[in-house]
Amino acid sequence: MINRKLLKSKQSLYGDTDARLAAFLGITPQTFSLKVNNKAEFTVGEIKKIRGRYHLTDEEVTAIFFSEKVSC
User: Which are the contacts of 10, defined by CB distance < 8 A and separation ≥ 6?
Assistant: First the structure.
């Protein structure tokens, strides 16, 4: 499950919107929405792109993309 709050905090830190991040990933805003709302999965390539864009550590990648329990 995606930790949406943590991803959103990274987006805010870098001044990114959902639409900008979706464009960077080469996906539609609708597809991005499905992914952050746990209705579809991010690909390995997308996770790598996000990691590079936000300079994420291994721990941050795990916390954002592989969280077992996420608060809403």
Answer: 16, 54, 56, 60, 64
